[in-house]
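Q: What would this complex look like in 3D?
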Amino acid sequence: MAAITLTVNGERRTVDVPPDTPLLWVLRDELQLKGTKYSCGIAVCGACTVELDGAPVRACVTPVAVAANRKVRTIEGLAAAGTLHRLQRIWITEEVPQCGYCHPGMLVQAAALLDRNPRPTDEEIDGWMAGNLCRCGTYSRIRRAIRRAAGEVSDA
Amino acid sequence: MPERMTRRAFIRTGAEAGAVLVVAAHVPLDGLLAEAPAPSFQPVAWIRIDTDGMISVVIDETELGQGVQTSLPMIVAEELDAEWSRVRPAPAPEDPSTWVRPLATGGSTSMRTGWQPLRVAAAKAREMLRTAAAESWGVPVTECRAESGAIVHAGSGRRLEYGALVERAARLPVPEDPPLKPASEYRILGSPKPRFDTPAKVRGEPVYCSDLSLPGMVVATVARPPAFGATLRSVDDVAARSVAGVLDVVRVPQGVAVIARHTWAALKGREALRLEWDTTAAAGRSSDALHAHFASLAHTPGQVMRREGDAEAAYARAARKVEATYHLPFMDHAQMEPMIAVAHVRPDGVEVWVPTQVATASQAAAARVAGVPVEKVRLHLMMPGGGFGRRLQTDDVELAVEVAKHTDAPVQVFWTREDSMRNGAYRPLTQHYLRGAVDEGGRPVAWLHRAMGVGDRGLVAAGAESPPYALPNFLADMHLHEAVAPLGAWRSVSYTHMGFVIETFVDELAALAGQDPLAFRLAHLANPKLRSALELAAARAGWGTPLPAGRFRGIAAVSSFGSHAAEVVELSVADDGGITIHRVVCAVHCGRVINPDTLDAQVESAITLALGYTLKHEITLRDGSVEQGNYHDYPILRIGEMAPVELHVVPSDEPPTGIGEPPVPPLAAAVANAVFAATGKRVRRLPIDTDALARG
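A: Here is my prediction, written as structure tokens for the whole assembly.
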């Protein structure tokens, strides 16, 4: 079995696993990055969302071979050098999470949105975030926090 | 239970809480207890104050996302006059059997049952600190008051921080009946405080049981019967054992466990199992068969819950009458983190990590399964990724201990989404037959409610006996069918269906009476608290005022779990029957509000869950098999489907009564009543069949 090398949160990592192992389990069990969550395993809930070369993907259905020699960013990598991403900061001040389990996926998905669309409308937010489920019902706070984060940049 | 805990007992319950105690835990205790100065002050089980002034509050409820880890310390901080910045939560006791009360989080009881004990506990601590300061200054206690984390002497302005009083206070007797702070002096309660658990969750730190990583830990998956009642006939594990990473395959009462080095290997190993099941006993356990069974009982008197007058006779002679049958399905909780637990069975005892709502019962269950005394089980209470009542069961920890008995290593028993959805603790399937009538004056004269369902009275029928209206000639009875699948409490339990049935049927009586649904309710509603919520919701929703074309309103009000909630829903129905919810106005009476931000979040949470079962999902059983398995065939609400919620709170100084569940029950009825206003069609089945609402 050939080793697979990928960059995770800026660090080159090498893993020795079957190439069809989902990236989710490589992150969680091999690399001990527990932030990315399992919830459905079939890419319908978004809890496992990570960024692959800047695009959000569902790690539960992404074979690690697909990530070979590419850049992965997880929730742990959202903060840069110890400073929280502004979405994370606002997520805290707005008290967005309840149980919190869906929020790593939510935050990675939301960060990808703001990278592409700095001032999304509510409809654009709902469309982009539609694949991220929250059972606790934090949706209105997610929308509000994304709008606030968008506003923060444009106010600068 | 003596309130003055010994240092040994304290360390057993509070060992993780701070550096002082971790050090102390390694110090041999024998012979030291009498001599060693207490490094902290813990006059009551819940509260410990250290010499640095930090105040630790033991959280003996599970933090489900409902904010108890913050709200409970707020109660303490207020009564103790603490500086909020010095207050922090401490973990639940690792031996729940020694705690002052059972650890069980559910029934919307955390604030209601924590309010008085925590206030009294904090008041005791405060009084002891006052006494300690007074003694050290040689002044009367009456001249000393608590203020912002210190005791202050009125006359001289002298001030001692709590931390400086710890050693002296620890030597004092605990007062029996301390005075409680008047509400007029509250500074903390009623204002939002940042939640302690939020930053770790936002950073993606490993806070969940599924994130636990222990030295030598292995992961197991368990192949369960494909249908309730099925039994294992044969196992061929040769292929499974040869999957890379698989360590062992073992039989447990619940099925066949594959133990592996990591999750993917455990999953692949389970896939490779060749199992044969005997499904004879599962046959016939079907949703359709159950509904047919209950339909055959609709006109057969059941076990009487409450009877007044003669409902049958009054119905028979009434001029204006209506009868209706309601069908409600099984439901899964579908919480985002599937069921999970970690267990380690060792010769010296058992250690479990479980995101449970019932720590005391889980410890007892683990002990029973392991065959050890309860005190040999150490339980680490984890924060679940959602509870909603699912984690009131102990099947998670029982399964983990069963598997752990087969290995020396700690075992994480991993449930997939399909495992969780197909081995749930379902809200039971129910069917309701109702008859109601009004007289010429539009007054209710007969009400008969036959509640039928799978399971016990609490899950199926509770609430049928007490609709909040004055109803002469009343009969509520029930037919209960034995459980054909595992059942449990789903956020608001029987009120998930009772609220829908009663509040839509009341609307039907109002229509018979030719009256407005709000006016009809107000004319016959006795409970003043429910009334206040109903009036507030109606007023804020503009009930009775014109709506834009195509928009319609529905209203409902339900008392449950000690609180009272009324909702007005505004919606539109498209030509194809599709429903768009524009607005939900919710008014609640829940006593004093502890943390208004948490209250707001809880109400949105309850309404989100309720919209899901009103519009989207159901569990169906066919010959013992759950036909759904994941979020694609059991869809929950998405962000774009969530309606704006406006929350209004009836002001109250009464003790808090809880908010987790009460906003759930009215929602489905308010939606159904609005759908009737929009279409003229009655909704008596959930989730709503929108095709049936299509025009033409």
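A: To summarize the key features: The CA atoms of residues 27 and 33 of chain A lie 5 Å apart. Chain A touches chain B through 59 residues (CB under 8 Å).
Q: Very helpful, thank you.
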